[in-house]
Amino acid sequence: MRVTFTVNGRKQEADDVWEGESLLYVLRERMGLPGSKNACEQGECGSCTVRLDGVPVCSCLVAAGQVEGREVVTVEGLADFAKQRAEKSGCASGACGTSLQEAQQWQSKPADSQTGENTDLSPIQQAFIDAGAVQCGFCTPGLLVAADELLERNDSPSDADIREALSGNLCRCTGYEKILDAVRLAAARGENQTAGQGA
Amino acid sequence: MAGATRTPTNLTQGGKTDAGIGASTLRPDGTLKVTGEFAYSSDMWHEDMLWGFTLRSTTAHAEIVSIDTSEALKTSGVYAVLTYDDLPTDVKNYGLEIQDTPVLAHGKVRHHGEPVALVAADHPETARRAAAKIKIEYRELPVITDEASALAEDAILVHEGRDDHHIGHVPHPNIVHRQPIIRGNADEAAKKADVIVSGEYVFGMQDQAFLGPESGLAVPGEDGGVDLYVATQWLHSDLKQIAPVLGLPEEKVRMTLSGVGGAFGGREDISMQIHACLLALRTNKPVKIVYNRFESFFGHVHRHPAKLWYEHGATKDGKLTHMKCRIVLDGGAYASASPAVVGNASSLSVGPYVVDDVEIEAIALYSNNPPCGAMRGFGAVQACFAYEAQMDKLAKKLGLDPVAFRQLNAMEQGTIMPTGQPVDSPAPVAELLRRIKAMPLPPEQQWLAAGEGADVRALPGGLSNTTHGEGVVRGIGYAVGIKNVGFSEGFDDYSTARVRMEVIGGVPVATVHTAMAEVGQGGITVHAQIARTELGVEQVTIHPADTQVGSAGSTSASRQTYMTGGAVKNTCEAVREKVLERGRVKFGTYHPAWATAELLLEGGKVVTDGGEVLADIADVLEGEAVDLELEFRHRPTEPFDLKTGQGFGHVQYSFAAHRAVVEVDTELGLVKVIELAVAQDVGKALNPLSVVGQIQGGTTQGLGVAVMEEIIVDPKTAKVRNPSFTDYLIPTILDTPTIPVDVLELADPNAPYGLRGLGEAPTLSSTPAVLAAIRNATGLELNKTPVRPEHLTGT
Fold first, then answer.
1. Which long-range contacts (CB under 8 A, 24 or more apart) does B221-227 make?
2. Contacts of B34 in chain A (CB under 8 A)
3. pTM (2 decimals)?
4. Residue A105 and residue A45 share a domain
5. pLDDT tens-digit profile of B332-378?
6. Minimal CA separation from B503 to chain A, in Å
């Protein structure tokens, strides 16, 4: 079958999709977007987390056909997504919130260079690097999508809030301490920025 | 082979990051990893590639009567179906130390999930469905599942006709290796004991549960060879095992490390490497294999489950008199790393304590259980769980504080190990214990902190809302452990680094090329730091790890910062000397300091140790590069004597201590770990941020095996019952407590920069500390990991 949906603001089309294929498979193997990860393919680890019409989902559990005509944001589009949200609301951490409608209407800008240090990152991506929250990095894309969504709804989450929001994302390397640090850091930077703007 | 590919690339760091060793510089691969661009082994892609699938045995022990692949071959989209009969040469087995593992089963399967046939097809689902059409007729055999069945008079031999180098000294062919250690006279010393305690302990089978599944891409070359992109812990060890079974010389199997999604020991053994190459060479097309989680549980070895018997004695003033122990590790169907695990289990079985009179025996069994091998802590973990339980029992019986009792018997620099080897660098065991004890305790009843009734998220059971504090009891436990660093027992353990220094665009840059497997630990971060420190450059490029450079040894045994870090340092020093030689020739006549002063490279310049600038590196090199590849070795070790266990077997020791604070819902048997405090000596923290990350991660894996992680193998059928993340639980962020870390830096004079390998020690003492805390809360004996609710409620 043919499946057409919007990924990171661009219309994408996949042909000859077998009915049993997951959204994760189509993203990774048919659309050249391997950022969403395949750690368990059974909805337990959260490494494949993407936003589907704004809602975080395990893309391994979503049949590709279910996504027809809908909007998907993956880790590859997270920086652009956060940037546009910030431009709209003056709040880069996402802490000021995005409505479902806004999330659905989001469009990406042209791709950034991928050369490394000078890539434009969203606040949560930068915080993960700065806090040492990345080791092997296989859980990172899913955690970033989940943490970004948390900060979008809650600009100053308590530790208990962070733990609850990220409890669907397994990490085997870090012991989670530096992941908590990263989310706290992104939230604190968001507050500073908001305060600096007098908002 | 032409065509579009997605494969690993160089990582260049500079400009924003200019710090050398000792600074918390950030990962050079960090940006790629947070943008989703980092190319993991499961992300490899090639135009026209096929998908491979492995058909595995559905039974643990059986003769293969027949295999019929005809229906599978007829499936549209299928390019190849391979069985044992299709293997191209006389070499059909592989293995880390003993080549006992068939590439594909021949005549017999020895464990549940053993590879029997391979399929390549144009879609992974097509390959899976075709594999399901392969008909295999099995004739079931009795299963060997424990020591009693392995050594029974009529026991079937798991491997007949063994001719490996251990068969001569093991008491039974179903024992892979046996290592006794006898020192002093334990029976005689026992007479001095005022108290004697003994115990039997059971350690469950733990899985590494790295998140990136076994995967990779094999691309057939025009020369009849193959290019293999794969996630592994040791490229050259893989190569040695892969090339012979493909019938290719090693230079025709070109391996490149692709992104590794964690390892923890589970990638020391071959998984899909050979299978993907066989399919690629047969079909002459690139072949990708990606395991799903179910298959991953069958696709790698696990941590050895163990039964341990211990006896300790002590005088009434708290001095240990003697120790006797027997450790039985279940190695499963194939040897993997079992012999080395036995060596560790026996030589580290006393723990970080002074005991002069010991009688130790460790063995690993062959059985029909899943093969077991390397996992973080490697033989030292199981022993630590048991000897630390013994320490608490002794302290209790003597009426002594458990920390004070441990400190009284703690080893220190100069202590003689049971192997007769002196501990010849700092061993701050008592100090580590002092530090964790001195850390402030988390406040009581934190669930009331918010002041609006109980926050159930801070209680055992969490959002299941099973208690608001009723029946919840706090407990505190301590533990300390000892781990060896590097490959032991006389192994020629070396690493290689190639370093190139040149001037590009007027700026001196260094390129570091090693075969070290970066598995997440941050080795590449440290390599860039070392190059900056030694060569005075800002910009460092890390070349992808491959087999075009010499071996880096394994990313295991806490050895890579020591060994490949040491190799990078060593090669950088030689490169620096070459640069200075050129400088002396070119500029020596202009300034006497070229001949007389100690010279360094700093900030792109040659400077004296007094800080005087002599020349720009750019002017010294003048468009030429210095490029060297050198090997680095740690000090030699020797094997343990097979009868007495005596020998200078280990390179270095590593120590960590934990304090666990738990809260237990005693009515429901639910445990919440509130805090796991760690103190560890790392010799020198090359990158403090990464050091703390390693310690917290290792601690959490120890927590997992304490309260939730276990691969359940049916004792009647030897079949794995829980091969999924639904049924095999690893700690989530809700299960993991705060982990305060106290890092000591007492230099080891034998090691590069004085550093001490650190990745494994925190996995040792974490588990017994949690167990001790639960015992402290409940008063129960608890001799098994993981602790389950029924162990606490007696139901």
1. B221/B1, B221/B252, B221/B254, B222/B1, B223/B252, B224/B248, B224/B252, B225/B251, B225/B252, B225/B253, B225/B254, B226/B252, B226/B253, B226/B254, B226/B277, B226/B280, B226/B281, B227/B254, B227/B255, B227/B256
2. 75, 121, 125-126, 128-129, 134, 137, 140-141, 144
3. 0.96
4. no
5. 999 999 999 999 999 999 999 999 999 999 999 999 999 999 999 99
6. 20
